[in-house]
Amino acid sequence: MNPVPRLTAVGRGLSFWAAVLAVGCTASRPAAPLLRVSPAALRPALPLAKLAPMPFIAAYEVFRDSAPAVWGHGMRLGASWRLNLPEGAALSGLAAVPREGVLVAHSVPEGWNDVLRRLDPAGQEAAAGPFPRYVRGLDILGTGRDAVLLAHEMYRVQVLSWDGRPLWATEKTGAQFAAADLDGDRRPELLAAGGYTGEVAAYDREGKPLWTRADMGHISDLAGGRFLLGPADGVAVLTAGPRESGVTLLDSKGKTLASLAEPCAPLAGTGLDRKGGTALLAILCSGHGAERLRLKLLEAAEGALRVVGENVLGWSELSALRAADLDGDGADELVLGTTAGWVLVYSNRGEWLSERHWFGRITDLAAGDVDGDGREEVVVGVGGHEPAVYLVQVEPGSVRPVVP
Fold it and tell me: Which position has the higher pLDDT, 144 or 70?
């Protein structure tokens, strides 16, 4: 860039050529050298102090309920303990082990493998060991000593032992998986679906294929439950394709019993046990406009699926879904997590019961009676700058004031 000429000589009464000469001399002077700053001078003298996590206070972790006595007189829904994960760690999976505690799988920033941590019902660590990093998600197949762990391994379902050791994997693709008691022996079998491949396959506990369906369309989720009368469970297949979306109910042998077309795409589903009778199927659908997420409750009766309950959730983005008998009355509640940090609780009639917000994304949910008191707990995984795991339960406490 040329310097701006200073025509001060003309103002002093000199000739034009003298002014031009003065300008040329001024322009020919070298500019002052730029000041060079050493990179070391830009570094802070001391590392920035890291803020310690806020202390866990159970009284501050209470949910907001729809009514002061929604869980009964003198009861409350809230978090009873918190596990802080290492900074930068990502949660791989959660599992609630009945009468045992909680399993937490998460990444380690400095390691090649993830870590699998076993916590007792009070949140104290009982054991820890390596966990394969190539698997994601975590669930339990079975109960007691016969139980094994389920996880996603790329496009298959991996079955693991309690200590994270791989046992066997499905032959077919496993974008979704679920458990269902297909023979009525109270020992559930494994269901795996291939997503866009349209395949659903059933396996026994040793990995032997039982049956396969390859004509289901674009599968978004699977759910097993007591949807039918009889000792065996039924299988609900949720499809969300570009041409048609809906729910198909299969029997324990994989045969179609009923189907229901849905104008909105079903994203996830789970079975809801009731006091007596068959279970309901709860599905979350993605709609349009102000009705982006919709809850629907379905019942199988007389060879058909019919809607028995419905609720519009608004502009929520679903990240996790679980059924849990939180108050121990024999009827499941529906617990869902959102990417905005909300945990929402609904009854098996679709009524809003309770909610709690955490700063971060709800990455996973697990449910089970971890302490053996007859009421199931929900394990909540929160991701973000300060990842953590919370145990949420209905427990005795002071009666809270009514929240408007």
Answer: 70
Express each pLDDT in 38-88 by its tens digit: 666 666 666 666 677 778 888 888 898 887 778 877 788 999 999 999 888
**Per-residue confidence (pLDDT) for residue 4, from 0 to 100:** 42
Q: Which residue has the tokens 């070298």?
A: 30
275 has a pLDDT exceeding 90: no
- Residue type at 376? E
131/126 Cα distance (integer angstroms)? 16
Question: Which structure tokens are listed for 360?
Answer: 């971060």
Q: Is 25 exposed, middle or buried (0-12, 13-18, 19+ CB in 10 A)?
A: exposed
- Which one, of 139, 228, 156, 140, lies nearest residue 192 by Cα? 156
Q: Taking the complete model, does pTM exceed 0.70, yes or no?
A: yes
Comparing CA positions, the residue from 126, 131, 63 lying closest to residue 94 is 131
Token pair of 44 as six digits: 């802070």
Residue 8: its H or E element: helix 8-11
Task: Provide the CB-side half-sphere exposure for 105 (13 A, CA).
Answer: 28
Q: For residues 381 and 387, what is the distance between their CA atoms, to the nearest angstrom? A: 8
The two tokens of residue 87 are 């900074």
Cβ pair 199, 211 in contact under 8 A: no
Start-to-end C-alpha separation, the chain: 66
Rounded CA separation 197/156 (Å): 13
For residues 104 and 396, the answer to whether their CB atoms sit within 8 Å is no
